[in-house]
Amino acid sequence: MARIRLDNLAHTYMTYPRDDRDFALKPMNVEWEDGGAYALLGASGCGKTTLLNIISGLRAPSQGRVIFGDTDVTECPTAERNIAQVFQFPVVYDTMTVRQNLAFPLRNRGMDPTRIRNRVQQIAKVIGMEAELDRKARGLTADAKQKISLGRGMVREDVNAILFDEPLTVIDPQMKWELRTQLRRLHQEFGHTMIYVTHDQTEALTFADKVAVMFEGRIAQLGTPEELFRKPQHTFVGYFIGSPGMNLFEAEVDGRQARIGPHVIPLAADYGRPEGRVQIGIRPEFTRIAASGGIPVDILRIEDVGRHVVLRARHGGVAVNAILSEEDTLAEGATHAVFDPAEIGVFVDGWRRDPVEGASA
């Protein structure tokens, strides 16, 4: 296991990049602690797979260093980094049995046959393939092959890190939940450093201790699921995390109040008078619908999603969402969205602005 540090790391696919826009990965400094469970979360094209491939040694960065523990491995090939990697699509040996596939990495390292047998049995239980251990991989379904691939990635106990690149894409939804749960248990039992790439926030937030949210080649925020939800550091994080995501409004901020057009919104702290593109953000969970206050909205529809109700509305051309409990009733004449001041974030040019020094939040 190893602490993984990225030191001023960046990457471009262009020979002569002119500025940051030509970089698939913008310069970043990141540290993943030894034994942590992390996720890289973002939409397609944000750079998360490129970053994972640089960590694994499949791609060399254009600048910066990759450090495992105290060792600079930037120039080291994948084999010397002592990592396991599980890819989006299954990679298995069709002519081997499931047992032989799982045992392959251990046999290559000359492990004692009894230990191999015990470890393979343990991993087969984790991935739910004990009954298929003596079946040839050829002819198995795509999700069964991906489970073998996952198992082979997890079978070694001596790796510095296990890297997962969208490994559950071909797995059916129920099995996804079961495998995520098993991966968490395996992490808790053996303490491998794990980095899990996905575009699915549910996968990221249920698997990882900390999630790195990426967009446009940057890590916008590295934090716990609670931190990403309660204090997103960028509007993209606010919008991307949550279902629905954060409500965002162009605003003018002056001290302890914001203005959305003519409507005054109280804030819980003094934010001064920020310049640039100023927005305020509020989660639908902290938005209620009342007869007055806040901002007027046109209610479009109400969606019952089981555990709660999502109210969809608009203020002018801007979407406004509110999450209500199933017991909440919409009072007649309730046409205003009202926000909890303590949960409002202020953002300038996309990034979260802290209150002025000495002001209460």
UniProtKB/TrEMBL annotation:
- Keyword set, alphabetical order: ATP-binding, Cell membrane, Membrane, Nucleotide-binding, Transport
Alphabetized SMART domains for the sequence: AAA (SM00382)
> ABC transporter domain: which residues?
4-241
Q: What Gene3D superfamilies does the database record attribute to this sequence?
A: 2.40.50.100, Nucleic acid-binding proteins, P-loop containing nucleotide triphosphate hydrolases
Pfam families assigned: ABC_tran (PF00005), OB_MalK (PF17912)
Superkingdom in the source lineage:
Bacteria
**PROSITE patterns assigned:** ABC_TRANSPORTER_2 (PS50893)
Cellular component GO terms, alphabetical:
ATP-binding cassette (ABC) transporter complex, substrate-binding subunit-containing
Q: Name one GO molecular function term.
A: ABC-type ferric iron transporter activity
Q: Which family does it belong to?
A: Belongs to the ABC transporter superfamily.
Cross-referenced PANTHER family:
ABC TRANSPORTER ATP-BINDING PROTEIN, MALTODEXTRIN IMPORT ATP-BINDING PROTEIN MSMX
Q: What is this protein called?
A: ATP-binding cassette domain-containing protein
Q: Which organism is it from?
A: Stagnihabitans tardus
In the record, what lineage is assigned to the organism producing the protein? Bacteria, Pseudomonadati, Pseudomonadota, Alphaproteobacteria, Rhodobacterales
